[in-house]
Amino acid sequence: MRKLALSDEILLKIEKPARYIGNEVNSVNKDASKVDVRFCMCFPDVYEIGMSHLGIQILYDMFNRREDTWCERVYSPWTDLDQIMRREKIPLFALESQEPLKCFDFLGITIQYEMCYTNVLQILDLGRIPLLARQRQEDDPIVIGGGPCTYNPEPLADFFDLFYIGEGETVYYQLLDAYKDNKKCGGSRREFLELAAGIEGIYVPSFYDVDYYEDGTISSFTPNNAHAGERIKKQAVIDVSRTYYPEKPVVPFIKATQDRVVLEIQRGCIRGCRFCQAGMIYRPIRERDLEVLKDYAHKMVRNTGHEEISLSSLSSSDYSELKELVSFLIEEFAGKGINISLPSLRIDAFSLDVMQKVQDIRKSSLTFAPEAGSQRLRDVINKGLTEEIILDGAAQAFAGGWTKVKLYFMLGLPGETEDDIMGIAHLAEAVARRYYEIPKEQRSGKCQITASTSFFVPKPFTPFQWETMHTEEEYIAKARLVNQEFREQHNRKSLRYNWHEPDVTVLEGVFARGDRRVGQALLAAYRLGCLFDAWTEEFDNVKWMQAFADTGIDIGFYNLRQRSSAENLPWDFIDIGVSKEFLLRERENAMKEHVTPNCRIRCAGCGMGTFEGGLCIESTSQVS
Amino acid sequence: MKVRVKFRKFGAIKFVGHLDLLRYFQKAMRRADIPIAFSGGYSPHMIMSFAHPLGVGLTSEGDYFDIELTEPISSREAVERLNKVMVEGTEVVSFTAIPEEKKCAGMSIVTAADYHSSLKTGELPDDYRDLAERFFAQPEIIILKQTKRSEQMVDIKPMIYRFQGRDHGFFMSVATGSAQNLKPDLVMKAFLRSAGWPEDNMIFQYHRLETYADGADGNLIPLEKLGWEIL
């Protein structure tokens, strides 16, 4: 039997000890002495969140298919265990072997949101790995970063040996082979990093020098090592139907946030919403074959025993064979006590029909994401959802028996006016009105319309990457204005309004578009005790502000400034396939309130048509 | 058809709590393709009820849950299929048909359970058997029972059916279930006090050996013995 890294005494003292014991169904155990490469995959948040992440499940399966490699997992110890590990000097360990991270060749950390950055440092720190890449020795693991936040890796540059930019399925094997070869030849850490730098999509931050102008903007970003290329090309899978996908994902003992079979039906999105980073960086749209998905559904249910299947994509309604897939799932599984859940679905006659079949209408609510309160601003952000579509969808839903509607909006979008802001309340009111137009005897009581706003954070590689953000006070004023307007509405008793606190938004802004220098503030914040910043009850803004003050890093420089299109942006060296010209063109269109049709209606010439020899099928089919 | 499943829980799985273990077995049923019945309604769930939940940290070789089948499956095949999809630390021991009547359901009929407790580290003093005998020979064993609202002195002796030193630890048979319930650690606490051993440095691992119902003749009868093998 495996020996656990933590004693019974500790495990019985902490919350949810099953987070730390490993040995879950479908987890992989190997003989460490019989593998060449030991890889530890990390999601820097608590187990239940990390175990819900599809990307790690894909790579875990893909790596463990190799006989020479053993891939294990680690997640952030919750604050209770964190304190015990520090006090009792227990090194952080991987779940499978229960051995310290120090024993591994690689530590791969997926970086999904900015507010997990202090947790990255916690993992390194508890793992006894020097926080700064330049301080690491030959026997320290190679620390790799990946995931959406690494499309601007610069704020984390000092802490990582290398970043993998893009989808993991393409060159990870090449990277592992290079490591093995280098180890066999007795090569050094530096020699491996040089080999890695030669692989497309791999960015070794220490091989680049950054210089700045007096005004703080970047003057040059240049390789200082002959193996490092000028530009790093994002990795994308060409044929998503014939690539790695786990038939036996790991099934956690404790309830994870995603406790279900996840079928990734497609990658990329045709919509082109101008605020959306995922919509740009994951281009082009690539659909997974229907028959392949059916086969996976069967195998994954059998191998996991999950009671729910969920579809995953940025916009499921755009999957061309959605109807066939959904009817298949309902026919095959709904009768066997397996739920079908369909997130990110456009509300229309089809989706309402499906939802009536698969969920309890009395309990469920319908979700719309208009993102902006006025048609004018929705045109600015290229959200092709009109008030008419929303109200028609809501009317159909009300007729079908739903009474709860959720509406998601953003505040602080570029060019936002007071009218746009107040439009949020007006749209919610219009939805409620639509409900009360139904004759009293045909409706069941009151409706409940809940509007939520978050504050917009401009992200790299979007048409809004040059835009300014606002101060915390300005954000609060915007939310207050919405709140006030809600109180003026006729049906206010059926309306609810929630907003997120703006302090986290400010930090997200700094780290989303920051350069290498902001890493100092991150390190200072961690040293002051910041951890689990994505958890409201753990987030401590006072310490964060202290960290910025102590390191002399000016938040205003990163957030409260319109960048010129000529400015060297920290992430310019990454080639995502979507051109800067396109982003600038889209920015122009935004200012003119021009809508750009989706990729299937008309190719907008974003650049993916020529990337990697024509990765985008949509564009080639347009041309022919 | 109603079925009773007996299972063992050991090793690291002892840190998986009762509700998570329930979910674990539900998923195992599906992986093993056991023809289990579901409740009706909008969100159907598997019909599965545990006889007596085991606390976090305890191991067991005599735990039970009852399920309902939509069609029969042989006991041998069910045990084999289930164990094929289990991880180390859980093992199905038996799979037996039980009477359909409500009054036979595992949860309501449990009256006793056997436990073995052993020191997590270190050795017991040599005279542990004698001390156990003396402890059990007392006419009454009074302890201070603390609940959320009150504290009271209670005599737990009537709820201890047997207590003896055995295999470098202690064997005990105690009242368990909805009518009367005595936790094994309370018994050990009382014993340590009576033996004059230091409570703080003696930490015990508790292992449930068997769960019982009252038999027709007044004897305790293991829950699985109330069922019969499905051929």
First-to-last CA distance of chain A: 62 Å
Portion in strands of chain B: 25-35%
Radius of gyration of chain B: 19 Å
Q: What is the rounded distance between the termini of chain B? A: 13 Å
Q: CATH class of the largest domain in chain B, please? A: Alpha Beta
The low-confidence parts of chain A are none
Q: Characterize the overall form of chain B.
A: elongated
Question: How do the strands of the widest beta sheet of chain A line up side by side?
Answer: 2-1-3-4-5-6
**Count of alpha and pi helical runs of chain B:** 5
Quaternary state of the chains: heterodimer
The CATH homologous superfamily name of the largest domain in chain B equals: Pseudouridine synthase I, catalytic domain, N-terminal subdomain
Q: Can you offer a commentary on this structure?
A:
The complex is a heterodimer of chains A (624) and B (231). In chain A, 34% of the residues lie in helices and 14% in strands. Chain A is of the alpha/beta class. Among the domains of chain A are: 8-233, no CATH class; 360-500, Transcription Regulator spoIIAA (2-Layer Sandwich), CATH 3.30.750; 578-623, no CATH class. In chain A, the strands form 6 sheets. Chain A has a 6-stranded mixed sheet with strand order 2-1-3-4-5-6. In chain A, strands 15-16-17-18 form a 4-stranded parallel sheet, with helices on one face. Chain B has helices spanning 18-31, 75-84, 106-109, 128-137, 184-195, and strands at 2-9, 48-50, 59-68, 90-98, 110-119, 142-146, 151-155, 160-166, 169-175, 204-214, 220-222, 228-229. In chain B, the strands form 2 sheets. In chain B, strands 1, 2, 3, 4, 5, 8, 9, 10, 11 and 12 form a 10-stranded mixed sheet that branches. A two-stranded antiparallel ribbon of chain B has the order 6-7.
